[in-house]
Amino acid sequence: MTSSVLTAPAPPDRGTPPPPAMRRLPSRSPRLRAQRTLLTVTIVLIVIVQVYPLVWLFLTSFRTAADFAAGNPFALPGSFTLDNYARAFGTGNLWINILNSLIVTLGASALIVIAGMMAAYALEVLGFRFSGAVKAILLLGIIVPVQIALVPLFIDYSQVGLLDTHLSMIIPLAAFSLPMAVYLFSSFYKYIPRETYEAASLDGAGPYRIFARITLPLSVNTIVTVVLVNSIFIWNDFIFANTFVLSDGLKTIPLGLQNYIGAMGNTDWTATFAAVCVTVTPLLLVFLVLNKAMIYGLESGATKG
Questions:
Q1: pLDDT digits over 136-155, tens only?
Q2: CA dihedral 227, 233, 239, 245 (to 10 degrees)
């Protein structure tokens, strides 16, 4: 028969500090509170500066022409009217301008995504001799101003018959946006584990199948980021459209807004504001819907994982 010895639990150690969750958090210092207040005020000012012009634009598009001309242009509308939108569609070829901008934006965005993904895949994943030098030279295109290409492109387009076509705008817009797209795709591909590609290679997958089955599905958020970032620039482009487009039937939105300038420089401002609202709204809606994917795409290349 064995006897068991009952032992009392050891008393708690009085010198052991309490766990972090039980410690009392120190009060915020005046310096920290001042920094947070300054940061909050700065953010509020930035939001006001960015949002107020849009709010003013939408409100002014519903004001009557007499109310806008006689009263304070920054005041709230005294009365609301939809005649401005009727004049906006009746004065110029707004539907044609929107269609042309849509064709150019979609065409250039597709070219940017396809060429950017393939170039980044070849430079970052496949790799070849002097790929780093090629990437550095390609990224130098970010600092090249678009104005230096206007005259040479105009001469070349006139010789090959591309002048006054949609391609005359799509090609240079995609070319000047390609370096940034390659940079974003390369930054994302850099952190895809190499083991994934090696495993696919061992299973017999070639470079094209690896691109279609692995790289492309993982690049959805980066594709959204590239499309949104470049679509804003392409949708609002004026330089290339004004240089290479000669006929009214191919004018994009920035060129079409010139139709609201009448004789002696008189401008129908309220109709112009209504036309701008019609053209800005699609971009705002797309950005609001896809902003999370865009932010994730920008961050995916900055942190591993």
A1: 888 888 888 888 889 999 99
A2: 40
Tokens found for residue 219: 């690049």
Q: Which residues pair with 261 in a beta bridge?
A: 267
Query: By the 8 A CB rule, do 174 and 115 touch?
Result: yes
Q: Identify the structural domains of the chain with CATH numbers, from first to last.
A: 50-81 (no CATH), 94-300 (1.10.3720.10)
pTM equals 0.77
R_g of the chain computed on alpha carbons: 29
Per-residue pLDDT of 110-136, as tens digits, reads: 999 999 999 999 888 888 888 888 888
How many Cα neighbours within 13 Å face the side chain of 169?
A: 30
**CB contact at 8 A, 270 and 84:** yes
Non-local (6+) Cβ contacts of 156 within 8 A are: 162
Phi first, then psi: give them for residue 53, nearest 5 degrees. -60, -35
How many other CB atoms are there within 10 angstroms of residue 297's CB atom?
A: 25
Task: List Cβ neighbours of 102 (8 Å cut-off, separation of 6 or more).
Answer: none
Beta bridge partners of 78: none
The answer for residues whose C-beta is within 8 angstroms of residue 37's C-beta and 6 or more apart is none
Q: What is the pLDDT of residues 58-110, one digit of tens each?
A: 888 888 877 777 767 777 777 778 888 888 887 778 889 999 999 999 999 99
Whether 178 and 292 have beta carbons less than 8 Å apart is answered as: no
Using pLDDT thresholds of 50, 70 and 90, give the confidence band for residue 15: low
Angle CA 71–51–180, to nearest 5 = 135
Give how far Cα 301 sits from Cα of 118, 148, 208, 294, Å: 17, 31, 23, 12
